[in-house]
Write a structure and sequence with these properties.
Elements (H helix, E strand, L loop, with lengths): L2 E9 L3 H19 L2 E5 L5 H7 L5 H8 L3 E6 L14 H11 L2 E9 L20 E7 L9 E6 L2 E6 L5 H16 L4 E6 L5 H14 L6 E6 H10 L6 E4 L1 H14 L7 E6 L4 E5 L16 H13 L4 H16 L2 E2 L9 E2 L2 H14 L1
Parallel strand pairs: 1-2, 1-3, 3-12, 5-10, 8-9, 8-10, 13-14
Antiparallel strand pairs: 4-5, 4-11, 6-7, 11-12
Length: 360
């Protein structure tokens, strides 16, 4: 029996609904395997702005740091779009990643056999399957660089700065190569080295790290070509390693190849013990309160949390199998619904998967 403290950052939009479904599945895991999960519910994003006046209160940082892992729903929404950049909900997400030292975001994109019919790709493109891991640098690059406004030659202009240090690139590259070494032993490093100085540094640093992993093949690819190749021939990719902004875009593209962005989880990790686990989608405010969101990505994020931070590997496999069983039995939320399926609500999908955990 193990006792674990989990900070649940429900956030905004559909965040409370999908994290509630995930907690129900975790409770089934606890019951089945004899664990005890203790949850706390700190505020982040718009919910924190409304209550505390800031997107990331210090109390939230403190609570996350003393937890064993963090499960996040989503942040943001049009309600807060008029706020200054440093006060917007997304600043809370960037801030908690930085505060916990989480510099690598790991995003799997896997196509389930049961969902090939909802992928936008043709069957002949998917004949070799789809199993890609995107490793995105998380605390550097243009999202964290110097920004502001100035007077330019054509009037008022805004600027954002892309900057990377060798250390920032090397540490995330090591994670990508370690993951690839346990998979199909190929890393595709995505950059724009034909244009950007930061990408030239990136490419050189990745090449040096590659020397530590002689069994792993390194392929360099420009980001525009990578975006095209993901659609044209996705099976060529094993692990994609890339920068913060490029990773943000490419991982969403890879996700949609699986049929829905509502299916895929992610983990944010660093050198510390506390990891952050979340779905890759946003807060979808248009779906909030309607019980129609897809909770599978958040449930699978909870599964990643169990193995990634809590070292509960059998429990992770149990959740993954429970999700596959629900899909095999035809259960679908609105985003992956097809004729003849068993269309269910967000909460019902959570209940089905939780029951599969207990009966698995």
């Amino acid at each position: 029996m193990a006792n674990h403290k989990i900070a649940v950052l429900a956030g905004d939009g559909i965040g409370p609904e999908i994290t509630t479904a995930a907690i129900g599945v975790l409770d089934s895991v606890a019951m089945k395997f004899g664990h005890k999960f203790e949850y706390s519910f700190p505020l982040i994003g718009g919910a924190a702005i409304d209550t505390e006046g800031a997107p990331l209160p210090q109390a939230t940082i403190d609570e996350c740091k003393k937890s064993d892992a963090v499960l996040l729903g989503a942040v943001g929404g049009p309600k807060w779009d008029s706020l200054a950049g440093h006060l917007r909900p997304e600043k809370g997400l960037l801030g908690i990643r930085s505060a916990l030292g989480l510099y690598a975001n790991v995003r799997p994109a896997i196509l389930y056999d049961e969902l090939k019919n909802v992928s936008p790709l043709k069957n002949e493109v998917l004949k070799n399957g789809l199993d890609i891991m995107v490793v995105r640098e998380l605390t550097g690059g243009i999202y964290f660089g110097t920004r502001g406004y100035r007077n330019g030659t054509m009037g008022r202009e805004a600027f954002d700065t892309e900057a990377y240090s060798v250390k920032e690139v090397e540490r995330v590259a090591h994670i990508a190569f370690q993951i690839a070494d346990g998979r199909r032993k190929k890393v595709t490093s995505v950059d724009k080295a034909n244009v950007l100085e930061s990408s030239r540094l990136w490419r050189a640093a990745v090449a040096r790290v590659a020397q530590d992993y002689p069994d792993v093949e390194l392929v360099n690819m420009y980001v525009d070509n990578a975006a095209m190749q993901l659609v044209k021939n996705p099976s060529q990719f094993d692990v994609i390693l890339t920068s913060n902004m490029f990773g943000d875009i490419l991982s969403d593209e890879a996700a949609m190849l699986t049929g829905s962005i509502g299916l895929l989880p992610s983990s944010s990790v660093g050198d510390g013990k506390v990891g952050l686990y979340e779905p890759i989608h946003g807060s979808a405010p248009e779906l909030a309160g309607r019980d129609i969101a897809n909770p599978i990505a958040t449930i699978l994020a909870a599964a990643m949390m169990l193995s990634g931070s809590l070292e509960l590997y059998a429990e992770t496999e149990c959740i993954e199998n429970a999700v596959k069983k629900a899909l095999a039995k035809g259960y679908r939320t609105a985003d992956i619904s097809t004729p003849g399926c068993k269309r269910v609500t967000c909460s019902k999908m959570g209940e089905v998967i939780a029951l599969n955990v207990l009966n698995g």
